[in-house]
Amino acid sequence: MKIVYITNSRIPTTKAHGFQIMKMCEAFASAGWQIELLIPRRINPIKDSPFSYYGVKESFSIKKIPIIDLILFSSVLGPVANFIESISFAIFSVWRLRDANFDIIYSRDQFTLWLFSFSNYKFVYEMHKLPNRPSLYKRIWRKAFKIVAITEVLKNSLIKAGVESSKILVAHDGVDLDVFEAVNKSAEELKMELSLPRDQFLVGYVGKFKTLGQEKGLKTMIESLPLLDKEIKMVFVGGDEAEVKEYKSLAQRFNVFSRCIFIGYQPYNRMAEYMKAMDALVLPSPDSSLAYYSSPLKLFEYLASGRPIVASDLPALREVLNDKNSLFFKPDNAPDLARAIKMLKSSQMLGYHLSQQALADIKQYTWKKRAENILNFIL
């Protein structure tokens, strides 16, 4: 049996979706399926192979589709550059598969699947968000063989839009537990190796600082710092140069720059080390439409790290987190975030129980189990 996974994504990429796609292809292949990943032939500053960059086994093939790549000129052409790139990728993907032998197309790209909806190909659509104009995509939902939704909230929205419930599987994202289990040093040892202060309570955020230009809650974390004890510091890991500069400026405005540590993008293995070095991890998702539907990868990585978690109280996060494995605070509410952090700092026992429950809960959210659930659903 063969799956063709189509994604109009530059791979490798520092963005989380690239890692998710590669891990899912690896997991599908480990379940016994033949996997071919189709990606666009784009200019890429990352020269490593996708397999070595993500630490993924070469258990599937990757084919590059020729496109009209005008992304570098998007500052001049605006959205036209993305549109031309997307339509060229979709057209050439259809052409590439015209005589190919496969069983199912799997994709999370709305534009590409819209074009495939006019063919007789059987395709599965993995949805990560609800489009701003759902009416444009109802054809995809209707023609899709199956739909994989990233959250229950997203599934319920599809049902309200007229999609049959039996056609939709909720499959939250996952994590590679081996990466975290390989980091078997204590938080104190990791702090020393990573040149982090050992005598202070470190509250961490590890991941992209923004998604599609949208704020991910770091502002709320910085705003909460003046309300916390002086021995509490915040560590922000994973931003690009411009984002680090922006949040450093924000920390200066709140007069807490000396209590913030900003670190740029790190390889995946090193991100796991930073997570496990923290005394607490914060998932500060703002109260926005994106947060209501999203299932961020760092949510599962935080659970796998075995560190106490403080998270925004949002429906999509509540599907995985609960009062036994996390503390919650009101989204975008700095005083309430400060309250939750104070609770963790004042009670080591509370942090211990939360982290132990997190380690127990994460075992059901591996990439392997996610792939098995999806394959059982679509077969």
Descriptive report:
The chain is α/β, with parallel strands linked by helices. The protein has two domains: 2-175 and 366-378, Glycogen Phosphorylase B (Rossmann fold, 3-Layer(aba) Sandwich), CATH 3.40.50.2000; 177-363, Rossmann fold (3-Layer(aba) Sandwich). 43% of the residues lie in helices and 18% in strands. The strands form three sheets. The protein has a seven-stranded parallel β-sheet with strand order 3-2-1-4-5-6-7, sandwiched between helices. Helix 1 (16-30) packs across helix 18, helix 10 (218-224) packs across helix 16 and helix 14 packs across helix 17 (348-361). The longest helix has 18 residues, at 79-96. The radius of gyration is 21 Å and the shape is globular. The mean pLDDT is 93.
Sequence-ordered SSE layout with sheet pairings:
Elements: E1 2-6, H1 16-30, E2 34-40, H2 50-54, E3 61-65, H3 74-77, H4 79-96, E4 104-107, H5 110-116, E5 123-127, H6 138-143, E6 146-149, H7 152-160, E7 168-170, H8 177-181, H9 187-193, E8 201-206, E9 210-211, E10 214-215, H10 218-224, E11 232-239, H11 241-253, E12 260-264, H12 268-277, E13 280-283, H13 289-293, H14 297-305, E14 309-312, H15 315-318, E15 327-329, H16 334-346, H17 348-361, H18 367-378
Parallel strand pairs: 1-2, 1-4, 2-3, 4-5, 5-6, 6-7, 8-11, 8-13, 11-12, 13-14, 14-15
Antiparallel strand pairs: 9-10
Helix pairs in contact: 1-18, 4-5, 9-12, 10-16, 14-17
Count the helices. How many?
18
**The CATH superfamily title of the largest domain:** Glycogen Phosphorylase B
- The helical percent reads 40-55%
What about the largest sheet?
A: 7 strands, parallel
Extended strand count: 15
* CATH-level-2 architecture of the largest domain: 3-Layer(aba) Sandwich
Fraction in beta strands = 15-25%
The value of Rg in angstroms is 21 Å
CATH class division of the largest domain: Alpha Beta
Distance between the termini: 10 Å
Shape: globular
Multimeric organization: single chain
Summed up, the domain count is 2
With strands numbered from the N-terminus, the spatial order across the biggest sheet is 3-2-1-4-5-6-7
